[in-house]
Amino acid sequence: MAQSYVLPREGGVDIRFRNIFGLVLGIWKAHGVYGFYHGLLANSMKIVPQMVVFWMVFASGQMAMTGGSSSRKATA
């Protein structure tokens, strides 16, 4: 069972779910559709810059290994 270790210390109640369907139903009843997207913007602001740096390093490493040429060559 899933338990919340934060809520009891903050005056809330312990949350327990028997299965994933109970969890989804609980979120739906408490917050509606918004509950499923809560924190998406903050998480995206964390992940997008990380992925930009990753792809820049990947592309520069790829160019360094191939001698500056693209790995895709036109065939005619």
UniProtKB/TrEMBL annotation:
Q: Where in the cell is it found?
A: Membrane
Reply yes or no: does the keyword DNA-binding apply.
no
Q: How does it sit in the membrane?
A: Multi-pass membrane protein
Q: Where is the signal peptide?
A: none
Q: Which domain of life is it from?
A: Eukaryota
- The protein's predominant localisation is membrane
Sorted alphabetically, the keyword list is: Membrane, Transmembrane, Transmembrane helix, Transport
Report the GO terms under cellular component: membrane
Solcar repeat segments: 1-64
The UniProt transmembrane annotation reads 20-41, 47-65
In this record, what's one Pfam family? Answer: Mito_carr
Similarity remark: Belongs to the mitochondrial carrier (TC 2.A.29) family.
What is the name attached to this protein's record?
Answer: Uncharacterized protein
State the species of origin: Plectus sambesii
